Amino acid sequence: MKNHFILISFLFFTACGFTPIYKDFSAENLNIQINSLSGDKTINDTINKKINIISDENSDKFYVLNIDTNLNKIPISKNKKGKTTIFKLTASSKVNIKFKSKNKIVSINQSSNLEISDDNFDTDTYEKTIKENFGTAIANEIILVINSMK
To answer: What is the pTM of this model?
Structure first.
């Protein structure tokens, strides 16, 4: 049974076109410097970590980023007492990418709903996870844009 599962998994991953997101970036040798980060701290910290993973200081392909992120928390549902039960979190980033003589400005938007639970700790933890996911998605989008600027 175990061998069947391994065989089916192998066939699935080789036949579906699955490729790791950073597969081709290890050979790229991109030197990415984040000049300025402003906005939400959690999102920006995640973006900074993800960008630094692929950045190579010894590369001659030098990119400079200026990133401004904004997080909006909009109530979309309330209970009978008037207390907000669901928020819509929207993150928008404006990224200025400089490479050689090229300058490109990219706007990236992410959104998700946040349901408020009775336990504030759970709600805060879930909100932080959503912000980190926003940061990861924004960093991945930035990397894709940089890869297309060659």
So the answer is: 0.79
